Every structure is written in structure tokens, then in C-alpha cells.
Amino acid sequence: MNKYLVSVIGPTAIGKTSLSIKLAKHFTTEIISADSRQFFKEMQIGTAAPTSKELNQVKHHFIHHKSIKDNYSVGAFEKDTITYLNNLFKTHDIVIMVGGSGLYVDAITKGLDYFPEVDTNIRKRLNVELELNGIERLQEQLKELDIKSYNSIAMDNPHRVIRALEICIGTKKPYSSFLNKDKEPRNFKTISIGLTAERNIIYERINRRVDLMIEQGLLNEVKSLENYQHLNALNTVGYKELFKYLNGEWSLEFAISEIKKNTRRFAKRQLTWFKKNEDTLWFDYQTDGNNIINQILTKINETF
After folding, report:
1. Domain identity same for 194 and 252
2. Which one of 133, 218, 257, 284 is most buried, counting C-beta atoms within 10 A?
3. Rounded to whole angstroms, how far apart are CA atoms 140 and 132?
4. Cβ–Cβ < 8 Å for 38, 102
């Protein structure tokens, strides 16, 4: 247990990528991405994926290694990442992980909950229901079957709602009843580093980032994916709003304002999720990287 995974977390646009690169350079190691949308090679601008320059500074894993047409689950990510970590820890004492997708971060640091296999036709029927009647009816169904999940999961995320519902229907037990059971122990220790700021600063950084994405050509990126807008990977902030514009439902100005609003909401949910981990060492986003490195070293020394 003398191997350490340093997990860099925090809300979107806070500066996780630059910090992770600084840490990886200092510890002469590599980076695992736990951002579930940066996996997809077709989605570069709208996911704020590391630039070519950044990727060339340190070796990254799980960046643009999948297509939006691929079915890549959090379970598959857990399995693939643990395999990578086992190999990386043969030659490195420390590996950096960075990402704002809380479920994917927890899958590696804590392990996933086990769910029984259910009839795949259930999910197909729920997806048809979503297409025909929208998410509200599914939300009400989940409220009836599992009020605990209804009050805890991201109810505006169709994928999460459908996942919870298919377990409820397929097992005739609440989705929440399968959560927080004993999990596979990890053969490494995790040091969680969180970046944050005052809410108004986070929101200002988000607004600037969205404007920069538009300048970099996000609209053209979304246009190139127009024929695939039904795919789950593209039910993502920055893409779904611009599809509304391309479909003639919204003006471009309104679509951009909705991207900013929905990204701010996403950042709020990220912080709520990450704050649940009481062991995280939180730093202001402007904290000097060397101070954070010293805190990591102190933490490591405390565990010996």
C-alpha cells in the first residue's frame, strides 16, 4: 500500500487540467482522465479536453480513446482503469487522476456498487418512453418506485433516471437498496485534491470558457455531429443546446445563454457530489502548485 493515486477534482473550468499536469511533471508520472465526455474523440471543443500542447507535456490515458458510437459504461471504465493503474504502479509510486465526473472518480477510488443483470428490453422501453413523452413521466415513475433515488440522483440526466428505473423494474427492488455495499478493496491509497473558488468566480470562469469555446468553433463541431444527436454521449451541455439552435427551436444567442446556465448548474452539482468526501484537501484555485505538492508529500509521510 505504498502506491498513491492523487485525484484532482473540482467544478468545471476551475483549472484541474493545468494543476494535474504540474503534479504529473513534479512526480514524473502519468495522468488518468476521469472525465466521461473527454473519452470521445469527436467531442473536443465542447468538453474542454486538454489541448495537443497539454497532451504532449505528460502522457494521458482515456482521452479521445472512444467514439460517440461506442457503448462505454462506467463499469467498463472502472475495469479498464484498474488494469492501467496496476501496470502504472509497477514503475510509478504516484499516478495522477483528474476529472469532474463524480461517479467515474468514485468508481476508481471507492469501487462500483453491484447491480444484477436485468432484461435489456426494459431499457429499450424506457428510452421509447423518453422519446415519446419526455423525462417528466420517467421522473414521476422513479418517485413512486424509489423516493430515495428520486431525491439523490441528478434527475435532469435521462441516463441516470433510466438506469435507476430499469433496476427498480427489473429486480422489483429499489435502485437505492443496491448502493453502498462492500466493494472490492483497492491496492493503492487515494489522496483527493479539490480546487474551488467563490461561486461568483466559478460562474465567471464558466461564462468565459463558453465564450472561448464558441470562438474556437464549437458550433461547427456540433454541426458535424448533427446526424448523431440522438446518441447518449451527445446529450451533454454545450451540444444539446446547439442542436436546439440547429433544429430551429432556439436562437443562437439563447442557446449560448442556456449553455452557460446549464454549465453553472452542472458545476453546482459537481461541488455537492465532491463535498461528500470529507477526506478531500481543498485549495483555492489560485493556490501555488508547489504548496499543493508540499501538502501531498505531507499526506504521504503521515501514512508511513
Report:
1. yes
2. 218
3. 15
4. no
